[in-house]
Amino acid sequence: MAGTASVRQRSMLAAFNPRNPEFARWGALPLRIIVGYGFFAHGLAKLEKGPEKFVAIVDALGVPFPHVAAWSAIMVEFAGGLLMLAGAGITLLSLPMIAVLLVAIVTVHLPFGFTSVKLMEVTASGPKFGPPGIEADLLYLACIAAMFLIGPDPVSVDGIRARRRGS
């Protein structure tokens, strides 16, 4: 019996080995959740504040076709975030999400450097922060690239579809 338990323990340890491709696929799950929720939350905020306000911001930044660009960004963030949370169509979602991030980097965050959190002062009403740099955008880009390279996690819609197809 002792030998059987030892074999079983080694088998379980092997399953949780980060070098095991089946275990490594789970690495996409936390990335998918944070990217999906982050995009969804940003899209929802734009919808709640009034999309026309975001259109005005995009126009002030000098982005061509501001109405189309703003609504495209909102839809990529809101709907793309929900699809990412579900793990549906991650390969296809990657390109528009990357595009939204690159536009944000170039039009908004690049002039403010790298750091996303810039503590300017602490007042009686709480901390005051300066404008964010490109750090968070780069983290999102890295997460999307990692998900693309890792492939679908086992509990994503894409992962379930792949298992059903037998691939």
UniProtKB/TrEMBL annotation:
<keyword id="KW-0472">Membrane</keyword>
<feature type="transmembrane region" description="Helical">
    <location>
        <begin position="65"/>
        <end position="85"/>
    </location>
</feature>
<protein>
    <submittedName>
        <fullName>DoxX family protein</fullName>
    </submittedName>
</protein>
<keyword id="KW-1133">Transmembrane helix</keyword>
<dbReference type="InterPro" id="IPR032808">
    <property type="entry name" value="DoxX"/>
</dbReference>
<feature type="transmembrane region" description="Helical">
    <location>
        <begin position="92"/>
        <end position="112"/>
    </location>
</feature>
<keyword id="KW-0812">Transmembrane</keyword>
<dbReference type="InterPro" id="IPR051907">
    <property type="entry name" value="DoxX-like_oxidoreductase"/>
</dbReference>
<feature type="transmembrane region" description="Helical">
    <location>
        <begin position="26"/>
        <end position="45"/>
    </location>
</feature>
<keyword id="KW-1003">Cell membrane</keyword>
<comment type="similarity">
    <text>Belongs to the DoxX family.</text>
</comment>
<feature type="transmembrane region" description="Helical">
    <location>
        <begin position="138"/>
        <end position="157"/>
    </location>
</feature>
<dbReference type="Pfam" id="PF07681">
    <property type="entry name" value="DoxX"/>
</dbReference>
